[in-house]
């Protein structure tokens, strides 16, 4: 009985380590949007060039993740977890000391590769250390680490850029990366499970039965949904600071607070959505997430003060509430290829959101920054259509 209770316990030491590792790894991703207005001024960049910076980060940190997922499904590489946390920290740390646009892109590549190495192996480990009944909530906790890292990164970078030294203060971001890498290295055995947890209970949430072959059409629909959600998320995190600093001539500190509110609300949404998906089904949460986002983005430009903060918080809460749920659904659809499933959902499809950011940069250069939010307010419609074709039933309890 005691052994069974331990299996059902949600927060275990391995999951806690992986969650905090996720937090530290994603700090750099949260810091970059706050950096962009300063980099734009320092290197005299256009909005299209800013979009390229975001695209490069997404390509290197996310799009190539399925390659690492494929590799980790065949060879256990637990050492990648601490090594990648360190590499991600190095990439963020050296951005502020780069002297040209091309060396800036090189620094972004370094940090991006660290992120790409971390997620497939770490999310696979988070999946395997969890019992079948808690996979949604476990992935929710693991994902909370990443989304909290995004929020902390934006706050920490805002503080760094408003302190003496300005851009060179990015060097301090190596410290948490180094500490976390050492901690993970000392606990490699705890975060390196060798046996898979039972799949039957988890698969039932997605309407998948044992022995059922992978439906590539449904997987493509899921990845398409993740791409739409990621394009919206990347667009908002990139253009919230730029809108307030460049278009409204507002305070960079206030802009970073707005971004932090959006990202912190996403942290709450991540775990809330994942927990609800264990109870009501994956499709219900995914559909509810994108439907509730639909009216919110269009309100953003028409609010001020407290109303803006409320709208941004609700947008972050609703948009990101499907994050962990889509990862778990893909893992359930691809039993035996958990690393690949993680790489596809956390990496490839999300990384393609960087393509959306580049296109939005072109829109901003030619039609103005406010037009970006007009485009973003329409994208959830495509997400609703795709979500309706996902496996499972709505409101199944």
From TrEMBL:
GO terms for molecular function: transmembrane transporter activity. SUPFAM superfamilies: MFS general substrate transporter (SSF103473). One of its GO terms (cellular component) is plasma membrane. The chain crosses the membrane at residues 76-95, 101-118, 139-160, 166-185, 214-232, 252-272, 284-303, 309-330, 337-363, 369-390. Keywords: Membrane, Transmembrane, Transmembrane helix, Transport. PANTHER family: FOSMIDOMYCIN RESISTANCE PROTEIN. This is MFS transporter, FSR family, fosmidomycin resistance protein. It comes from Sporomusa malonica.
